[in-house]
């Protein structure tokens, strides 16, 4: 039998993603985004996202099928994000996937969005080695995962205790007066600044933190430190050196993320690191990860940016891995779980 | 055998599905009264009605869905399920206002006389109701919506004359009977609890015959809650 053809549906935030994957090959990935409708609110409004998902669902499925030149009847399984994410948006994708499952008589797989961000790399760089580390960083997540088998055995080593990395960038962007989402603007400013100009704090990196939080992150205090620094300059009537603030802040985030991740690789005897999620587009993180992985002899795998943002391909990729591993399908009554544990690859 | 069945779905109050023949004969019906569990309950019920009728999804010639008005998340479960099910079997999907089914069910259950006014009210949360006002036609099988659908505080409907002389029915009648009763002809709190999808299917056929718009678009009747943020708060005092 040929490799399974899996339809993947992703609706955990503002992107409606639908993709078709055969085995580890991506046939087509269609994405519709409602980001433009959220920008003026300075954040994702779940109800606006949900309304957009309902409108976009059928057209996005149609487009993916047409571009992949596939008929729905050929699909072997339907995979969908079951969590974590926003409840209302998740519900749209899950309902669509379940109805397709019933109508097509094909199995349903409710999968984990964060683990999907790692799984998508199989479509780009091929099968994972026996053991890999995955750093998933986005506007909603910052998690360090030990991957023994992407379909059946993922361990969460750590995650953010407060803000996600991308969220911290957006918040700092706001306090610097940059448009939403602020991440790309800070990245651009930081490229022309001095990352050592201001010594911002690196949370949870002291020896006393290592017993409980060796692999956890915290970016809320860093954001406040930037705010205090900027307010003090403004109060004194001084100009804010935007490039240096951005570079020093971005360096603090990249430093903590990469230092903890490399240490985890070394302590767990892992020589492959996968970085995924929308924040992996950040150039300070990419540069520092490349440099430190090279020093440590670790193979770094970062998919191209279009695979790192939310999309259906990551869900289809994980669904395909589950089908190949002969994992039993999900039942039709599975709930969506906005805080789905990262040790569950599927429900 | 050509496809000749109609699959109907409503998730505006709780969850209800029906599989009927195009002539209206009911083959299988399922419902759940668990409001807020539409996403968990709907798909298993779809599978169950198909199984009970011994039907294949490809036997379905048309999908009909209640378009609300209703609280948003639950309503969307029905709409997106109907749209994607229809896509999978390459069938059309028709939308009907869910309140229309409740009005017709009430007229039939209560045996209302021609010319009677019916006010359907359902729970819109936030102390408001979704409402529609109807007039019973020459026989109890036809109703004309004379006002609505809308969303309002029950007291506002009593004040602006929407309740006047009407028989009040629907899930909102039991919640706000005391406010609605004084100005209305009667309040029948338990006459109808949730839209019957087999009735939606009949309404869709009649509407299609008249050439009405059957767009399966949600009747939200409210804008999303969203506010443009003000200036950033300071971190230092």
TrEMBL record, chain A:
List locations, semicolon-separated.
Cytoplasm
Keywords attached to this entry = Acyltransferase, Cytoplasm, Iron, Metal-binding, Transferase, tRNA processing
Q: Which InterPro entries does its entry note? A: ATPase_NBD, Gcp-like_dom, KAE1/TsaD, Peptidase_M22_CS, TsaD
Q: What is this protein called?
A: tRNA N6-adenosine threonylcarbamoyltransferase
Q: What is its EC number?
A: 2.3.1.234
Q: Give me the comment on cofactor binding.
A: Binds 1 Fe(2+) ion per subunit.
Q: Which organism does this record belong to?
A: Flavimobilis rhizosphaerae
What gene, per UniProt, encodes this protein? tsaD
Q: Where does substrate bind?
A: 136-140, 170, 183, 187, 282
**Major location, coarse class?**
cytoplasm
Provide the family line.
Answer: Belongs to the KAE1 / TsaD family.
From TrEMBL, chain B:
| Signal sequence region | none
What InterPro entries does its record include? ATPase_NBD, Gcp-like_dom, T6A_TsaB
Q: Which ranges of the sequence are coiled-coil? A: none
Region (Disordered) spans which residues?
213-237
- The Gcp-like domain covers 33-140
Record-linked CDD domains: ASKHA_NBD_TsaB (cd24032)
- Which protein, by its recorded name, is this? tRNA (Adenosine(37)-N6)-threonylcarbamoyltransferase complex dimerization subunit type 1 TsaB
**Name of the gene this protein is made from:** tsaB
């Amino acid at each position: 039998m040929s490799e399974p053809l899996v339809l993947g549906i992703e609706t955990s935030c503002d992107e409606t993603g639908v993709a078709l994957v055969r085995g580890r090959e991506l046939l087509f990935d269609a994405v519709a985004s409602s980001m433009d409708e959220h920008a003026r609110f300075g954040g994702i409004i779940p109800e606006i996202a949900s309304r957009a998902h309902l409108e976009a669902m059928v057209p996005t499925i149609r487009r993916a099928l047409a571009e992949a030149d596939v008929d729905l009847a050929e699909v072997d399984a339907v995979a969908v994000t079951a969590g974590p994410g926003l409840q209302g948006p998740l519900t749209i994708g899950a309902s669509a996937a379940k109805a397709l499952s019933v109508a097509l008589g094909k199995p349903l797989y409710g999968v984990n969005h964060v683990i999907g961000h790692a799984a998508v790399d199989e479509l780009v760089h091929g099968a994972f080695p026996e053991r890999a580390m995955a750093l998933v960083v986005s506007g909603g997540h910052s998690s360090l995962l030990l991957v023994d088998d992407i379909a059946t055995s993922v361990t969460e080593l750590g995650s953010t205790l407060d803000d996600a990395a991308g969220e911290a960038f957006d918040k700092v962007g706001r306090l610097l007066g940059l448009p939403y989402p602020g991440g790309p603007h800070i990245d651009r400013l930081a490229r022309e600044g001095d990352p050592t100009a201001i010594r911002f704090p690196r949370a949870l990196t002291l020896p006393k933190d290592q017993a409980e939080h060796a692999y956890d992150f915290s970016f809320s205090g860093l954001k406040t430190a930037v705010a205090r620094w900027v307010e003090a300059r403004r109060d004194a009537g001084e100009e804010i050196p935007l490039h240096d603030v951005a570079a020093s802040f971005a360096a603090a985030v990249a430093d903590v993320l990469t230092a903890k991740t490399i240490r985890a690789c070394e302590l767990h005897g892992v020589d492959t690191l996968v970085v995924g999620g929308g924040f992996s587009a950040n150039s300070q993180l990419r540069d520092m990860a490349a440099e430190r992985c090279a020093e440590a002899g670790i193979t770094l795998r970062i998919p191209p940016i279009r695979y790192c943002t939310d999309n259906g391909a990551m869900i289809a990729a994980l669904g395909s891995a589950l089908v190949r591993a002969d994992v039993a399908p999900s039942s039709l009554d599975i709930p969506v779980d906005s805080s789905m544990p990262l040790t569950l690859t599927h429900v | 055998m050509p496809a000749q069945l109609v699959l109907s779905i409503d998730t505006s109050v709780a969850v209800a599905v029906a599989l009927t023949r195009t002539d209206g004969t009911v083959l299988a019906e399922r419902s759940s009264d668990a409001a807020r569990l539409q996403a968990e309950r709907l798909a298993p019920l779809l599978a169950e009605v198909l199984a009970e009728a011994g039907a294949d999804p490809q036997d379905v010639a048309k999908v009909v869905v209640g378009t609300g008005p209703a609280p948003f998340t639950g309503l969307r479960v029905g709409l997106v399920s109907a749209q994607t099910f229809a896509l999978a079997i390459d069938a059309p999907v028709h939308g009907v206002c869910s309140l229309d089914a409740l009005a017709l069910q009430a007229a039939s259950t209560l045996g209302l006389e021609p010319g009677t006014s019916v006010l359907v009210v359902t729970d819109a949360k936030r102390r408001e109701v979704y409402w529609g006002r109807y007039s019973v036609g020459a026989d109890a099988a036809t109703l004309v919506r004379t006002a609505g659908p809308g969303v309002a505080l029950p007291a506002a409907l009593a004040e602006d004359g929407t309740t006047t002389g009407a028989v009040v029915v629907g899930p909102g009648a039991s919640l706000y009977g005391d406010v609605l009763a004084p100005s209305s002809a009667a309040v029948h709190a338990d006459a109808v609890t949730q839209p019957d999808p087999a009735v939606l299917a009949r309404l869709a056929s009649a509407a299609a015959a008249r050439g009405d718009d059957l767009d399966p678009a949600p009747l939200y009747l409210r804008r999303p809650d969203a506010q443009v943020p003000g200036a950033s708060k300071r971190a230092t005092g």
